[in-house]
Design a protein that fits this description.
CATH architecture of the largest domain in chain A: Alpha-Beta Complex
Structural class of chain A: alpha/beta
Distance between the termini of chain B: 78 Å
Distance between the termini of chain A: 55 Å
Helix content of chain B: 25-40%
Structural class of chain B: mainly alpha
Oligomer: heterodimer
Strand content of chain A: 5-15%
Shape of chain A: globular
Number of strands of chain B: 0
Number of helices of chain A: 28
Largest sheet of chain B: none
CATH superfamily of the largest domain in chain A: Spore Coat Polysaccharide Biosynthesis Protein SpsA, Chain A
CATH topology of the largest domain in chain A: Spore Coat Polysaccharide Biosynthesis Protein SpsA, Chain A
Largest sheet of chain A: 7 strands, mixed
Shape of chain B: elongated
Number of domains of chain A: 2
Strand order of the largest sheet of chain A: 3-2-1-4-8-6-11
Strand content of chain B: under 5%
């Protein structure tokens, strides 16, 4: 690695970034000002009472947030039309388009941190990506590292068997590596840092995968070439598109990223330019820069601002930028994919962790010196993505109180005690309608523009969405569901924000990526929302029939939360709508990348027979598995040897069932103990626990 | 191992036969030897005149158990480095100009 000294050059993008960001900010502020003015006209006392001030205080950030999202997409639409889909003139892909094909590659690591994931799915994705890299003819420039933090032996033994099968099948011994951490310090950041400390110096760049990532060889090669072309680049983030969705919910999310994603990501990339953020995966990182500047200390604050940084990616991007390196979001790199959670509840479980992680960013937003303003804005955006929910909740609460005061006849003609003149409350329903309409336009215009962009200007991409009729049907259905899901998400996020502030511990666990949601589970999870909806609508009806009608869109979706969640999580519904052509996307039409076709067609036979015992038994009893376990285990000495000998003797006498699985699996940390236990088991008399286990195994194999 | 089956006639009345312990022992060790070989190589080889001698089967099994451990390496050699904690004011840091 030779890029330890960063060329000291002026930031060539500072001027254009400032222009773009100020224009964007001006539009957002202008629209927000109009929105505030409209709201003041709608409020009976025009914001002069305490409750109306509270309504305005909650309304302003909500409206500004919605306006910012909308202008971002409009900006993306403008750039796409201006550059006719060739990409922003300042992006790396455009600037280095000529040099790219002839740029050589350097040794790059692909790191795949995993923790209690679906092993078959992880290795299917990895294998498809590796085969795609090999197909480019540049396979020798990449090494793959599976970095497991799994603690359950039933999972990590399967991972290890899958790794070995992959190496055998593709003859990649020595180029695909597997490492399991015995001590899982600092979760995913600790996992990657551990990899970097031990092997990082071997590689100029490393590409981070998530457990559900799939990337084409072309995308990986392009990322390395871009890094070589731009020595100031510290990170390049691709835009992963969703794929492999089966449930109706996941297919809807997939449709959203394919249809609306390009507009938003294009707008975001153009605003951020060389101060983009890192999303944690499907991105390339300059190893030395990362190792020198991005180590995350445990936070020493209080409450949720103490301990491990949960959402590390934004912080790492901010730190590498602070060190002078550039961070780019490259929207033109195709072949970057990930999966959606299969259900709303799984998405919400993930959001629980993300909400706490994003709220932790308040510490970096306010108190970290030297961070670029663009990254402070990114922190703020991430924080408000979750804070918006409790703010919306409070807005609804204050609005209800306002209505309740009027319904109770509690009219105050002198809200300002210093004024001698009465302030007559005034109702302007026409302004309320205008304000609601403008909000709806702000919310839905980006989606309509994305549809327009696709239908009018992108004929080739349109084929991937099926017929125009089906595309429109999918568009309306998606909007209907997004309206229905918004209040459910709002309530859940509000609860998560409160829990995060109270510093409720967030469990670190692998995500469910493949299961449906049951009725009982959904009813329990959404019961508070249903009770709240009935109570709120009941109060609204009691106070004022007109106000009750306004509450219906929110209370109805909260009431229907359980059935909606269960229904959308169904694979059968997803499959049926796929057959009917609803929410079709390019990957489903085989118009995506070849890597996705290969992913779907890969033959992944089971790693052990169906009737075989659990992985720990199988590993200790199977002749080859035991030898592999011994080959990969260290040779112990000293205190470690004494401990493993003690464990082995206990296991020999009492069998595996005598101990907790994780404790028993520690025998696999001593090569000699593994083989001694294996030999003991096969030679043991039938009344010995191991002898009977071996006899049981031989019978199991016979059963089809 | 044998794809033909023999009809078993029901035992009349309360008559009980003595359990053939000796045969069980012989079959057990034959079975262990054969299955070990099967799991090890993926292809069991057994002829119909299988050797039921317990000692022979145990000796064969011992021999198979003594097969050496293969050379296998999950990770490349370590090249130690360090991940430095982010610092606000070090000479390495260069504020974006």
């Amino acid at each position: 690695m030779t890029d330890s000294v960063l060329p000291s050059t002026k930031d060539a993008f500072r001027r254009i970034a400032l222009v773009r960001r100020w224009v964007f900010t001006a539009f957002v502020l202008l629209q927000t000002s109009l929105g505030i003015w409209g709201m003041i006209l709608v409020l009976p006392y025009h914001g002069s009472t305490t409750i109306e001030k509270a309504i305005l205080i909650t309304f302003i950030p909500l409206y500004a947030f919605v306006a910012a999202g909308s202008w971002m997409a409009l900006f993306g639409f403008y750039l796409r039309r201006r550059y006719k889909n060739r990409g922003d003139a300042h992006s790396l892909m455009t600037r280095f388009a000529d040099r790219l094909p002839t740029t050589g590659l350097v040794k790059t690591a692909v790191a795949l941190p995993i923790y209690h994931e679906d092993v078959e799915r992880v290795f299917r994705g990895l294998r498809a990506s590796i085969e795609s890299v090999l197909a480019t003819g540049q396979g020798e420039m990449f090494e793959f590292f599976i970095l497991s933090d799994s603690r359950d032996p039933e999972i990590w033994l399967e991972e290890r068997a899958a790794w070995l099968t992959l190496c055998n099948d593709l003859d990649l011994h020595g180029r695909v590596h597997y490492r399991r951490r015995r001590v899982n310090l600092k979760a995913k950041t600790g996992n990657v840092a551990d990899f970097l400390r031990r092997w990082g110096r071997n590689f100029k760049y490393f590409i981070v995968f998530d457990a559900d990532s799939v990337m084409s060889g072309e995308a990986l090669v392009t990322l390395v070439r871009l890094m070589e072309c731009e020595p100031k680049a510290g990170m390049i983030q691709t835009v992963p598109r969703l794929f492999n969705a089966r449930s109706a919910f996941a297919r809807m999310q997939q449709f959203v990223t394919h249809l609306y994603g390009p507009l938003f990501s294009e707008g975001l990339a153009a605003l951020q330019l060389n101060e983009a953020v890192f999303w944690g995966h499907n991105a390339i990182i300059r190893t030395e820069a990362f190792m020198a500047h991005c180590g995350l200390k445990s936070m020493r604050g209080f409450g949720l601002w103490r301990g491990t940084v949960l959402s590390h990616d934004f912080v790492e991007a901010a730190f590498i930028r602070r060190a002078g390196y550039e961070v780019w979001l490259e929207t033109a790199i195709e072949g970057s994919f990930e999966e959606s959670p299969p259900s709303l509840d799984d998405e919400l479980i993930r959001d629980k962790r993300w909400s706490k992680g994003n709220l932790q960013h308040l510490r970096f937003f306010g108190f970290e010196r030297g961070i670029a303003t663009a990254h402070r804005m990114a922190f703020m955006n991430g924080i408000f993505a979750y804070m918006a929910s409790p703010v919306w909740f409070l807005f609804l609460l204050f609005s209800t109180i306002e209505v309740a005061q009027f319904a109770a006849g509690d009219i105050n003609y002198f809200p300002d005690t210093r004024s001698l003149y009465p302030n007559w409350p005034q109702w302007h329903p026409q302004w309320a309608i205008i304000l609601v309409t403008s909000t709806l336009v702000t919310l839905f215009l980006p989606k309509v523009l994305a549809l327009f962009d696709l239908l009018v200007f992108e004929n080739s991409r349109r084929q991937g969405f099926g017929s125009t009729g089906k595309l429109l049907q999918g568009f309306f259905l998606e909007n209907l569901f997004s309206i229905l899901l918004a209040p459910i998400r709002m309530l859940a996020h509000s609860a998560y924000v409160v829990q995060a502030i109270l510093n409720v511990t967030v469990r670190w666990a692998g995500q469910n990526r493949s299961s449906e949601i049951g009725w009982l589970q959904a009813l329990i999870r959404h019961a508070p929302g249903m009770i709240l909806a009935i109570t709120w609508s009941g109060i609204a009806l009691y106070l004022d029939a007109n106000f009750f009608y306004w509450t219906i869109p929110i209370s109805l979706s909260l009431l229907l939360a359980a059935p909606i969640t269960v229904w959308l999580s169904r694979f059968t519904l997803g499959d049926r709508w796929r057959r009917q052509g609803i929410w079709r996307t390019p990957p489903e039409q085989n118009l995506g990348d070849q890597v996705l076709v290969d992913f779907a067609e890969l033959d992944m036979p089971p790693l052990k027979p169906q009737n075989a015992p659990d992985w720990l038994n199988w590993t200790l009893l199977h002749p080859n598995q035991a030898r592999i376990a011994a080959a990969l285990a260290p040779h112990r000495s000293g205190a470690a040897k004494r401990a493993s000998t003690e464990l082995k003797e206990k296991l020999m006498v009492e069998g595996l069932q005598a101990l907790d699985r994780r404790k028993a699996a520690r025998i696999l940390d001593d090569a000699e103990a593994v083989m001694q236990l294996h030999q003991h088991a096969w030679m043991a008399p039938p009344d010995d626990p191991w002898g009977s286990q071996v006899d049981h195994l031989t019978r199991l194999i016979c059963i089809k | 191992m044998n794809d033909t089956s023999t009809e078993v006639s029901p035992v009349p009345g309360n008559t009980q036969c003595e359990y053939p312990v000796a045969i069980c022992g012989q079959l057990r060790w034959l079975q262990r030897r054969v299955f070990y070989q099967f799991l090890q190589t993926g292809c069991p080889t057994i002829d119909l005149q299988a050797n039921l001698d317990i000692e022979d089967n145990q000796a064969d099994l011992r021999q198979r158990l003594a097969v050496p451990i293969p050379e296998l390496c999950a990770m490349p050699p370590i090249l130690r480095g360090s991940v430095k904690h982010a610092q606000t004011n070090t000479k390495h840091n260069r504020k974006p100009s």
